[in-house]
Design brief:
- By secondary structure, the protein is mainly α.
- The protein has one domain.
- The protein is built from four helices and no strands.
- About 20% of the residues are buried.
- The structure holds protoporphyrin IX containing FE.
């Protein structure tokens, strides 16, 4: 069960960041498909399943936010990734700003992945 959940969570993480980067590039290029309903809805489905698998894993490994600091960092990191993504895809109006928020979301994601693998709050900075 643990292995299946971890693979599911990891696979959904890859789908989430790949989908975000493809949409961000399309958005910067002014592509019309970025505004289509399925393209806007699917990321919510992926991210909800991604979070659900993460929460199920918490119970498997019995490590919890605000108890274990690396999990706290992951939860805060996920929120930051979502906020930066909204900034890149909805709020930013110029291409340089869209690029900056996209890189911020990508950097946050890479950092949180490093926290996941190291199980240390400082992740790749440890
Ligand atoms: C951008 C956000 C996230 C990324 C990129 C991410 C990525 C990953 C990756 C790659 C693994 C597998 C690590 C390994 O194979 O050792 C993992 C494991 C895990 N993740 Fe996440 N995750 C994120 C968010 C979350 C959130 C929000 C939670 C909790 C609600 C969570 C809970 C867990 C747990 C409990 C594990 C298993 C740790 C263990 O094996 O001891 N993750 N995550």
């Amino acid at each position: 069960m643990y292995i299946a959940l971890k693979h599911t969570h990891t696979l959904l993480a890859v789908i989430s960041i790949s989908g975000f980067l493809i949409r961000a590039l399309g958005h910067m290029a002014g592509a019309a498909w970025v505004q289509r309903k399925p393209v806007r809805i699917l990321p919510h489905v992926v991210d909800t399943l991604f979070l659900a698998a993460g929460i199920a894993l918490l119970f498997q490994v019995q490590q919890y936010p605000f108890v274990n600091d690396w999990v706290t960092v992951k939860v805060i990191g996920l929120i930051a990734y979502i906020v930066f993504g909204v900034m890149a895809l909805r709020v930013a109006k110029t291409t340089p700003l869209k690029a900056v928020w996209t890189l911020a979301a990508l950097g946050t994601f890479v950092f949180v992945a490093s926290v996941a693998y190291s199980k240390q709050a400082a992740g790749l900075f440890a």
